[in-house]
Amino acid sequence: MTNKERILANLQPDAEQPFPPGEYKARLARIRERMARDKIDLLFVGSPDGLNYITGYQCEWYQAQSPKQWPGTSGVAIHVDHDKYIFFDTVREKLITRYCTHSTDTRIFPLASMRDGTAFIVDELKAEGWAMGRVGLEFWSYRPNRVVGGRIQSRFEEAGCTVVDGSDVLREVRWVKSPAELACIEEAGRIAETGLKAARDTVRPGVSELEVYGAIVHAMAAAGGENPGITMPVLSGKKTWCPHAMASRKTIKPGELVMVDVSGVYKRYHCNMARTFALGEPAKDVQDIVRRAIGSMDLIRDIIKPNLRVGDLAKALIDYYTAQGIWEERGWIGGYEMGIALPPDWVGNFVFDPLDRQNHDRLFEPGTVINYENQFYLPREEGHFFQIECLMFKSDRAKLMSSIPYGLTVIE
């Protein structure tokens, strides 16, 4: 045994598991219940957010866009009849699995296979008696990519399994958060507010968008925040018309609007908030549209409650904006699930869209959290008013999650 092998065999960094074992046991039980409902015998999870939800695992690189020699094949296998999972990973990440997870059964790919563990995974599961029946893979995940996912599917099919889409198992289970998860999102909300306050204190004429972005990142990291799943936009002037653009070296000018979209992150749980700043007093017609837009927040505060029907909130908002005469000036009105996320996204599975009836008969159950995006285009190419808030539904109440005022924040 080499010196390196001896060190790696014995090294045990301090534990950094986000939650105690009981939280993960409860999650595993819910996953297995959903698997039984969907008639899935074995679920193989390779998505980064799925791995984190099941085990607490996180790292900076998942080989999602990697050389062909280094395919991303690590993952977790869950069997509907067993109260444990099996974690498969490379020798390079063996140490991470020790301090990030509560895994009791971690199996490391043989060195000879490099990072392609597909044959090893299926052989191990066959020996365990798990590779049979219906196997669910995450067809809707970007990881593993098409080639690697096809390779995994072929291995299971060669073993006699029937491969089906198991994407909805974790996506649906994760929709309802535990009290411990809600506490993380509340802490993420505090961190997001810290970022918006840093933006408010930094936005000035002559400052670049990247300088504002840097101030946000510094403030949120100092407050205990982690890197968010999306590079947070800081957009000024006409760039506010394209809210998915990125902060750049563009200098902020007097009279411009500046849109800032942040997400606080705590234990990988996200809370998304956005505000729009005005460098100088806006025109009265601009202020009028913003005033009518943010009036929707009073409506939301009055109507939200646990088990509110999604379609009822959608109808109330459409009726409000129509009565205010601004419905046709909207950007996007709606929201999506908040929860665990890793780059390159923080958008959850559930979508709330007043014009898309797919989820309208569902309920905002206790334990659910969404953001709410309130976007309107302003006259004379003044810019795009952009505001995001998060709504949290608990067992006894629902709430808006930020204390930062709505509307345009004027920077004199």
How is this structure best described in words?
With 412 residues, the chain is of the alpha+beta class. 35% of the residues lie in helices and 22% in strands. The chain is built from eleven helices and 17 strands. The strands form four sheets. The protein has a six-stranded mixed beta sheet with strand order 4-3-2-1-5-6, sandwiched between helices. The chain has a five-stranded antiparallel beta sheet with strand order 12-11-14-15-16, covered by helices on one side. Helix 6 links the parallel strand 5 and strand 6. Helix 10 runs antiparallel to helix 11.
Question: How is the topology of this model organized?
Answer:
Elements (H helix, E strand, L loop, with lengths): L2 H8 L10 H17 L4 E4 L2 H8 L19 E5 L5 E5 L4 H7 L5 E3 L9 H11 L5 E4 L8 H13 L3 E4 L1 H7 L5 H24 L6 H14 L11 E3 L20 E10 L2 E11 L4 H20 L4 E2 H14 L6 E7 L14 E2 L10 E2 L3 E10 L6 E10 L4 E3 L7 E4 L1
Parallel strand pairs: 1-5, 3-4, 5-6, 9-17
Antiparallel strand pairs: 1-2, 2-3, 7-8, 8-9, 10-13, 11-12, 11-14, 14-15, 15-16
Helix pairs in contact: 2-7, 8-9, 10-11
Short précis:
By secondary structure, the chain is α+β, with helices and mostly antiparallel strands. The chain has eleven helices and 17 strands.
